[in-house]
Amino acid sequence: MLKGKHIIVGVTGGIAAYKTAILIRRLVDKGAEVRVVATEHAKQFITPLTLATLSKNPVMVEFFNPENGQWNSHVESGMWADAFVIAPATANTLAKMACGIADNLLLTTYLSAKCPVFVAPAMDLDMYAHPATQRNLKILEEDGVHIIEPESGFLASGLKGKGRMEEPEVIAERVCDYFASPFVSDDLFGKKVLITAGGTVEPIDAVRFISNYSSGKMGYAMARQYSRHGALVTIIRGAVDERLPGSIEGVREIAATSAEDMGHKVMEVAADCDIVVMAAAVADYTPSVVGRGKIKKSSEELILKLKQTRDIAASLGKVKKDGQLLVGFALESDNEEANAISKMERKNLDMVVLNSLNDKGACFACDTNKITIFFRDGSSKHFELKSKEQVAADIVKETVALLAKM
Ligand code: CTP
């Protein structure tokens, strides 16, 4: 995917620098030739020996090697690179980049670079949220820098919030996406694909709801892959990771709230679709009565009565037209295989993608996933742990093959 590409990885002084080692590994695995330029501070977080060993090139920190005078030409590096990825990018480096300050080799390389530049900020939540940092990121975005937004989670300070550097797999995937040809093939050209993504939100009263941890990442990854095959893609999404909506050009997005709302929207759009993928985590139960206003705290215990929601996939299975492909997901913790197959049959799906809760690295918010696909003819395919983007590509490939047989 990155075969023959020259990538400079810039490392600045933040605790997330330990993840840069994995990023370099991923880029090299994908076929890239990597050189590393680091700031003085970065050396306090990760050793040049680690970075040099993984990148198979000496790490550039100084403008010249004081021992032999060999010049590290930032101009030559800037010309050599097909992409410059700065990860982690501290608030300090982002600020200097935004102002055009050139007081270290990483910054002069940035100013000389003719290639696309990616930054993966990493810092404490308050530093990230500070108007100065946000202003600098906006300037950089206007200058054409690709910002790979940090995640929310636990930070080195012990606080929780947005500022954790995006995972190396995702950063590497973003770089791949940049170089990927917009089309893998046109084998789904003009075909209509509907994907549901994220978790539904079931209201309890005017201010409270029941939902789940689904992030929508798998659904969006599939939408991206289907677009690359030339399909006309619609996503009907419940609650998803805030970074996802609007992230795929040309994909129509429809927001849904509850299982009932999603059900109505899906039934309407699915009617003239060739492929429907039910990747959403649809609630099985919803409050029987939705409180008007805010339910007041009164007794020691509050019993919430729930009623079953409509099974959207099963409803689709009942009205499935000839030549229409219906794909479901099954998230299981016990009797995984038997449960997945029974779901496929019960809901009249053409294939079911099994996720096991017992597999490490396969979870709602993870960037990786491990799946097994079961087909109606009794066959199945196991896949190794991969990034969600690659998993999506595998699923899409299987649906393309199945559609061709229908
Ligand atoms: N699904 C749906 N409507 C529902 C519940 C699930 O369309 N009300 C879809 C999901 O999008 C998924 C498939 O059905 O594609 C299986 O969902 P899952 O939650 O694994 O199974 P359930 O049928 O809900 O059974 P259980 O929760 O008991 O495992």
Overall description:
- This protein is of the alpha/beta class.
- It has 13 helices and 21 strands.
- The chain has helices spanning 17-29, 48-55, 74-80, 91-99, 105-112, 125-129, 131-142, 168-179, 217-228, 259-270, 312-318, 336-346, 388-405; strands spanning 6-11, 33-38, 83-89, 117-121, 146-147, 151-154, 160-164, 192-197, 202-203, 209-210, 232-237, 252-255, 275-278, 285-287, 306-308, 325-332, 351-356, 368-369, 371-375, 380-382, 386-387.
- The strands form six sheets. The protein has an eight-stranded mixed β-sheet with strand order 12-11-8-13-16-17-19-20, with helices on both faces. It has a five-stranded parallel β-sheet with strand order 2-1-3-4-5, with helices on both faces.
- A hairpin with a 4-residue loop joins strand 19 and strand 20.
- The model has no long low-confidence stretch (mean pLDDT 93).
- Cytidine-5'-triphosphate binds next to helix 11 and strand 16.
